[in-house]
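Researcher: Sequence recovery benchmark, item below. Answer with residues only.
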């Protein structure tokens, strides 16, 4: 990078590209912990709403949570997370993610607006900072601008939905999620800016693979902790022991499938 060009990102702002840059730092895992909480909250939401409508709501919320995690993980792939500026931005979106996660049980009740605002901050704050961080002379600026243009729309629709109730909220949020995933699939087509191609923003694949591996490890660890603590607090009988055993076997099966096949394939 030519550091004499003031329109480019400041030296040290962007991540280095050699393979050793694949290591995941503790600050990234700190962010991921909030999304492990979100996964747990979603599981409880589905258990508390065992209907077709409840399953649809849980799926919609999951798609929003997944979009938020992927969005921040994708952006952080380009920046040196050891820089103070990026860590501050990451703490802001971590706080917004915590609001989102804590609001999940009541997202379709009294905390819909809190969920929507948290989701909106996640989508827009990091992308805005990324545009300012890379400067005008960097080829990453245009892809970030495309993403932010559509994320502003998605965030706005979610906030509108958070102000509504019942079926109206569900319909608006469903439309917003459908738009978000459709434009992501199409490369964020934007007037005058065109649409993105994967060749425009090469990612550090080893870093993303390692990030996913550690996220799954934390999530499965949380599952074991919850399973063990709940079993220890409940009265011991054959039915609960059977449920405990099934939960353990299911967790092992997920671990085996991912780490025996998916982790290596990801790398």
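Model:
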């Amino acid at each position: 990078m030519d550091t004499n060009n003031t329109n480019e990102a400041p030296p040290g702002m962007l991540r280095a590209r050699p393979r050793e840059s694949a290591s995941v730092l503790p600050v990234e895992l700190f962010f991921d912990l909030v999304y492990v909480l979100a996964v747990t909250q979603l599981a409880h939401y589905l258990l508390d709403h065992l209907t077709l409508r409840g399953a649809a709501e849980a799926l919609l919320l999951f798609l929003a949570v997944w979009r938020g995690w992927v969005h921040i993980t994708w952006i952080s792939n380009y920046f040196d997370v050891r820089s103070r500026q990026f860590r501050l931005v990451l703490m802001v979106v971590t706080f917004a993610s915590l609001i989102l996660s804590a609001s999940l049980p009541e997202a379709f009740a009294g905390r819909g607006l809190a969920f929507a605002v948290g989701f909106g901050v996640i989508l827009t704050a990091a992308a805005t900072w990324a545009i300012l961080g890379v400067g005008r002379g960097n080829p990453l600026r245009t892809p970030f601008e495309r993403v932010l243009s559509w994320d502003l729309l998605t965030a706005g629709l979610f906030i509108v939905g958070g102000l509504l109730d019942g079926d109206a909220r569900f319909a608006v949020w469903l439309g917003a999620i459908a738009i978000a995933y459709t434009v992501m699939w199409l490369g964020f087509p934007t007037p005058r800016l065109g649409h993105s191609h994967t060749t425009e923003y090469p990612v550090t694949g080893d870093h993303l693979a390692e990030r996913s591996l550690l996220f799954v490890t934390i999530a499965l660890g949380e599952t074991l902790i919850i399973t063990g603590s709940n079993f220890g607090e409940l009265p011991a009988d054959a039915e609960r022991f059977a449920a405990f055993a099934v939960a353990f076997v299911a967790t092992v099966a997920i671990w085996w499938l991912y780490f025996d096949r998916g982790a290596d394939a990801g790398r």
